[in-house]
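Q: For a teaching handout, I want to show students what a protein-ligand complex looks like in token form. Below are the inputs, and the small molecule is zinc ion. Please produce the holo structure.
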Amino acid sequence: MPLIDTHAHLNFQAFETDREEVIQRTLVSGKDNFEPLEAVVNVGANLDSSRKALQMAKENKKIFASVGVHPHHASQLYSGWLKEIESLALQPKVVALGEIGLDLHQYSSGIGDLEKQKEIFLTQVEVAKKIKKPVIFHCRNAWPDLLDILDYLKNPPKGVFHCFSGTRGQAKFLVESGFYLSFTGNITYKSAGNLREAVKEVPLERLMVETDCPYLPPEPFRGLRNEPLYVKIVASQIAEIKGLPLATVVDATTENARKLFKLD
Ligand SMILES: [Zn+2]
Ligand SMILES: [Zn+2]
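A: Here is the structure, written as tokens, with zinc ion included.
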């Protein structure tokens, strides 16, 4: 069974000059010892990149889209943004709302922005619930606030915490709450012992893999632009941590992605 990159940004500027070549090797030819993938989910972070994700999904059967406004873009929205997100999200090739959530990394501009982040996060969560699509959650340095919101929601939508960066305890809590957890190339970094501990906490049936490309290239590609084929390195690292054959991790994560995003 081939891998799925459940969180890529081929819709971003970083792929502007060679996007078609990258798509070709990702989904058709592969490269070196990287076999072609079954599918890619391109994720939007604002209105522009969400529109682009949808356009790419319409052009290629194996590309899917997620649409949403990332917390970093919370303060740059035009008045009709929510209506547009909802209409994009209703398109058949759009498989999720996201990436949405809270991000207090490099956060220095005061509590007003956090309130704004919470507001746009919650309004998009409501859209996901209304149209019955899952959420791709983004959370960085904001775990207490985000977990408070989930608690307050009582009946949160289904979804995946992408690029999981919390503690082993938080991973356990999210698994018990019914969520999927997705890991990126940063689990290969020397300093990421805590993330490798968190991987141990996530059972196979709740695991997903992603690249978050162009960001977070796994070793030995650190410092270069990341791309979807390298999701294999993430799966291999997880297999090593769990002491399982790579094929077992590939099969499970692909099956989970198909199921959550209804890819068939
Ligand atoms: Zn993210
Ligand atoms: Zn992302």
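A: Two things your students might notice: The chain has one domain: 4-261. The beta strands are 4-8, 39-43, 63-67, 94-103, 135-140, 159-161, 180-183, 207-209.
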